[in-house]
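Q: Given only this backbone (260 positions), what sequence would you predict?
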């Protein structure tokens, strides 16, 4: 049985549930799966976190080292975000260089951190125009059961909030310093399926949806980024509703799991 047939079977199943106001796992359309966050799980990283949203699991490690700044920002630190789709996490993931899905996921995570100003990059300058601290954010997808964006973004900010600048290692001071993290952007993803909006899509919900919208907001409730994927349309009313709900849900996640 090929993937198209399997997807169509799931589409029919999810369609029938949707018409009854139900979802595969019994949640309401606006309900998230259980979330858990563990930090400082990688001893050799400057910051790390494991995030689970339902059965979706990601591990994020942050490494910090000195290097050259970008020419257009000579007095600011650098953020480099990478995503690895571990083959054991899904039969669809293959070994090798990052594919389009991994690159897109990394960009969304990076944009939320960068546009929110979560990390004060101006405080990461060591020598103007010559040396700054470079942050490597590495996201590893361990189990894919849907909604990788929200799990990855949450893992990234949780790891950054635990990170320390390794000044002792590079003989730049007697004590390491906490990374200057000023904000906590949270991503909320919704899909549209048969006229209904569902949040935190599971694996097959994400597959059958014609459109997906991720909204990233900061602690003040301002938008830090949006990402739409899929060919399906969204009405202005649907977009406004998703944005409003996403900001509210992000606030709840931030207060409960990041204690902000």
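A: Predicted residues:
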């Amino acid at each position: 049985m090929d993937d198209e047939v399997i997807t169509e079977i799931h589409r029919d199943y999810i369609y029938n549930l949707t018409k009854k106001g139900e979802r595969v796992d019994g949640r309401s359309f606006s309900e998230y799966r259980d979330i858990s966050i563990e930090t400082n799980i990688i001893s050799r990283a400057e910051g790390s976190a494991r995030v689970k949203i339902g059965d979706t699991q990601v591990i994020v490690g942050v490494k910090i080292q000195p290097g050259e700044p970008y020419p257009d920002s000579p007095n600011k630190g650098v953020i480099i975000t990478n995503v690895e789709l571990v083959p054991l996490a899904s039969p669809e993931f293959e070994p090798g260089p990052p594919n389009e899905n991994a690159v897109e996921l990394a960009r969304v995570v990076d944009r939320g951190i960068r546009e929110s100003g979560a990390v004060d990059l101006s405080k990461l300058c060591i020598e103007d125009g010559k040396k700054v601290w470079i942050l490597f954010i590495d996201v590893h997808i361990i189990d894919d059961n849907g909604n990788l964006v929200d799990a990855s973004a949450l893992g990234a900010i949780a790891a950054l909030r635990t990170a320390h600048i390794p000044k002792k290692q590079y003989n730049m001071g007697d004590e390491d310093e906490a990374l200057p993290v000023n904000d906590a952007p949270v991503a909320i993803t919704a899909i549209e399926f048969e006229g209904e909006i569902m949040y935190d899509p599971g694996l097959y919900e994400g597959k059958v949806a014609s459109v997906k919208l991720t909204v990233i907001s900061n602690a003040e409730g301002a938008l830090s980024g949006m990402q739409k994927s899929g060919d399906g349309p969204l009405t202005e009313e649907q977009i406004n509703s998703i944005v409003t709900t996403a900001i509210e849900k992000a606030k709840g996640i931030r207060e409960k799991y990041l204690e902000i």
